[in-house]
Amino acid sequence: MGSAGGAVGLRGADRPGRVGHGDAAARGAGPGRAAGGAARAGPHLGRRRHGRARAHVTIVAVDLGGTRLKSAVLTGGVPGPVTAVAHGGDWLPALRVAVSGASAVALCVPGVVSSGRVVSLPGKLPGIENADLAELLGLPVLLVVNDAIAYGVGAATACSEHGRVVVVTLGTGVGCAVVEDGRPLGRGPLGGGVLGGQIVIGEQSGPIDTSGAQGTFEARCRADSLVASVPGAVDVASAYALVAAGNPDAVQGFSDYRSWLVRGLAALCLAHAPDCAVVGGGAARAELLDGLEHELRAHLWHGQSVVLRLDELGDAAALHGLGLLL
């Protein structure tokens, strides 16, 4: 992550340890706020001062997940090759390695984000709540945003011809975002539809979500729940393999999982009335969505139509979103 690229002008007065480099909006005041509690860099980035070009910086975008970290250098807001590593919960050393050689960082993380900090994240990334990430990294942090928001903005480009898009990612948890015309819908730490995974879609029994609750969209449709639904599966890949082989128990378990996914998607579509819904994440594959749009339509309001698509960007979706949000 140390190659030159993603050059953006940076003020000489800017110092590490400051989100947004002194910009009041980036610290939580004024119009620089983004949906989902993002802290944003101020509008001074990229300009010239006293007729001289400012020093250039290399911006590294990082998608810090519950078990994996993905990163890429941004060039003109577009991520280059993606590096993915498992951190097993020991996230800070992995994050420091990912941004070594960078001049500035754009970051998305799970949980509730406010004023550039993670203020609530039960069950994941121990020690990150209320941590000053710029201070921990010794680097300017241009943007901190909920990972579902970043993923949603990136993945919504698969439905660029549609105005409002609901994006769902099936991974360690179930991330949700609502994007309209390329931007998160709503403001504040809980804006952008980030709590969609916590919607209750069934009896409060069975698997639990990452906050310990039962019966939620996340509890029923996170990647671990897909694996648990397919007898004999040990991971997502083996679950799909068993289904593809025609194992009767696996096919039935997969069908049950799809039914829960339809319930969750229907709840989001009824609440937000999107034109398109995009599903991605480690548990999402083309065969999961095969025929699902027709099943979803039966649960929607009379006359309501939602196009259902698979995310096309994969590991790069959230990194693309960070580039678009900067």
Please tell me about this protein's structure.
This protein folds into two domains: 7-151 and 318-325, 2-Layer Sandwich (Nucleotidyltransferase, domain 5); 161-312, 2-Layer Sandwich (Nucleotidyltransferase, domain 5), CATH 3.30.420. Helix content is 27%, strand content 21%. The chain has helices at residues 91-98, 133-137, 147-155, 217-221, 223-229, 236-244, 248-272, 286-289, 292-297, 317-325, and strands at residues 7-9, 56-64, 68-75, 78-79, 83-86, 104-109, 112-114, 117-120, 141-146, 164-170, 174-180, 183-184, 276-280, 307-310. The strands form three sheets. Strands 1, 2, 3, 4, 5, 6 and 9 form a seven-stranded mixed β-sheet that branches. It has a five-stranded mixed β-sheet with strand order 12-11-10-13-14, with helices on both faces. The longest helix has 25 residues, at 248-272. It is globular and about 55 Å long.
| Broad shape | globular
Can you count the beta strands?
A: 14
Instruction: Write down the secondary-structure element order.
Output: EEEEEHEEEHEHEEEHHHHEHHEH
Q: What is the C-alpha radius of gyration, as a whole number of Å? A: 20 Å
Low-confidence stretches: 1-35, 40-54
Helix content: 25-40%
Structural domain count: 2
